[in-house]
Amino acid sequence: MPTDKIFIVGVVTAIDAASDRVTIACEANETLNLPAGTRPFVAAKSALLKDVTVGEKVRFSLESQQISVLAPF
Questions:
Q1: How far apart are CA 68 and CA 61, in angstroms?
Q2: How many CB atoms lie within 10 A of CB 30?
Q3: Residue 1 has what DSSP assignment?
Q4: Which tens digits make up the pLDDT trace of 32-67?
Q5: Is 2 part of a structural domain of the chain?
Q6: Nearby residues of 4 by Cβ (< 8 Å), 6 or more positions away
Q7: SS3 (DSSP) at 22
Q8: 66 close to 60: Cβ distance less than 8 angstroms
Q9: Domain hosting residue 18, numbered range
């Protein structure tokens, strides 16, 4: 996993593969000025969502407001 990216930790609450969206209940990230909360995110590539399951704790990174890296925590 790249170390130059800022990662956010959260739990997947919903997956909408048809629109490449995943909803994540995420922890606050002060560096990104992102408060804790549950929100939908768009995946930059649909392949990022293929191995993710609802209820899974994940670590992800955003690039241009889209998830660019998504992995189990």
A1: 6
A2: 7
A3: -
A4: 899 999 999 999 999 999 999 999 999 999 999 999
A5: no
A6: none
A7: strand
A8: no
A9: 8-68
